[in-house]
Design a protein that fits this description.
Blueprint (H helix, E strand, L loop, with lengths): L1 E4 L11 H13 L6 E9 L2 H4 L6 E5 L7 H19 L3 E4 L13 E6 L3 H4 L10 H11 L2 E4 L2 H10 L7 E3 L21 E5 L8 H9 L2 H6 L1 E5 L6 H9 L7 E4 L3 H10 L2 E4 L9 H7 L4 E4 L4 H5 L4 E3 L4 H12 L2 H14 L5 H15 L3
């Protein structure tokens, strides 16, 4: 079986969950007998695909130059279609949503839906954002759709008229972060770790309010935010209005190795998001013996299972009680850590590739 992945996501992300998913999937598929999987990204900006051998990925990395993104995207898509046609695949796995298909007439098209954020939180996006419309058109013409969680599948069925028989659920794998630097981080107090973007539905504001409402948390812990960019003016204003200081709420960045060290040394990882299509950070935390305390909504319980302390992300009291409950009980914290180590073993790229390959085989005749 020949499987082609098109260029779309690789002109959009230098780093990111979707491009890492495609690269990890392609690598695993290529280890399977009688399978040839290849990424066609003639022009791209992506670090992951740039690290792959030419046998697995076709294309060159180009510099990010202001106002040229659309040109690079369109040119790469066009060149990708030509290269894919010459490759003659049975399956084309389109890596994002487009008004134009990358799939030749004699191949079958598969598309993965990672979340329905544009539909669930439409007010957070510009009225001129074409993502939802292109998503609808792409999924309508696809031969099969993969959703990364049951929750995402249900959201998809809510927003787009599509047959449930056309959809399969395949959970992500995740990349284990390696500890290659000194494990101990010198911080003045134990800390709660928050990872990633902080806007809107990510509910970072809720975590700040919950932290500020607890004299015990303020006396014994800090909040460390990894990634997501510097604290913004509105965030600094909220921190000040809650009576907190920048010694209590710190933003840092760094490599995957540094992130691993922050997980390893955290009192707990807190995930207050109102919505996730899947959610990789809890698995990263679990794999490094960091207890997870998280929201009880969307796909998060589906991924985390019983390996966490849960809260209602819309309730400040619930967030506070959950964090205090885990950290004030060594027995509860250790139990969550032990269950987390076991839970994250279920989410491998090998399993993801096997289930995805089964989807491909179900729609083609070899």
């Amino acid at each position: 079986m020949k499987i082609a992945f098109d260029s779309q996501i690789f002109t959009m992300q230098e780093y990111g969950g979707i491009s890492r998913y495609i690269c990890s999937l392609a690598q695993q598929l290529n280890t399977r007998q009688n399978v040839e999987a290849k990424i066609f990204a003639p022009l791209h900006i992506n670090a992951y695909v740039d690290s792959l051998p030419s046998s697995l990925a076709y294309g060159v990395k180009v510099p990010r130059i202001r106002n040229t993104g659309r040109i690079v995207h369109a040119a790469s898509q066009l060149l990708s279609r030509v290269a894919i046609s010459r490759f003659k695949p049975q399956i084309v796995h389109e890596t994002y949503f487009s008004s134009l298909s990358s799939t030749p007439k004699n191949a079958r098209c598969v598309i993965t839906v990672h979340d329905m954020i544009h539909e669930r939180f439409s007010s957070a996006f510009s009225a001129n954002d074409p993502t939802s419309e292109w998503k609808r058109k792409s999924l309508k013409r696809a031969d099969h759709v993969i959703c990364v969680s049951e929750n995402t599948k249900q959201d998809l069925l809510e927003f787009i008229d599509i047959s449930p028989e056309k959809i399969s659920v395949v959970h992500h794998g995740f990349n284990r972060l390696a500890l290659s630097i000194a494990e101990k981080i010198a911080l003045p107090l134990p800390y709660l770790l928050y990872v990633g973007d902080r806007f809107g539905y990510k509910n970072f504001d809720g975590l700040l309010r919950a932290f500020a409402s607890s004299s015990w948390l303020k006396s014994n812990l800090r909040i460390v935010c990894f990634g997501g960019g510097r604290l913004q003016i509105n965030e600094l204003a909220l921190i000040k209005s809650l009576g907190l200081t920048l010694k209590q709420v710190e933003q840092v960045g760094g490599s995957d190795e540094q992130l691993a060290s922050f997980y390893k040394n955290a009192a707990a990882f807190v995930y207050p998001s109102l919505y996730e299509g899947f959610g990789i950070p809890p698995l990263e935390a679990m794999s490094l013996n960091c207890p997870v305390i998280c929201s009880d909504v969307s796909s998060i319980p589906e991924v985390v299972g019983d390996a966490a302390g849960y809260f209602d992300p819309k309730s400040i009291d619930s967030i506070t009680v959950a964090i205090e409950g885990v950290l004030q009980s060594n027995e509860k914290r250790n139990n969550i850590i032990a269950k987390g180590v076991e839970r994250c073993e279920k989410f491998t790229w090998s399993r993801c590739a096997n289930e995805t390959l089964a989807v491909y085989k179900s729609i083609v005749k070899i």
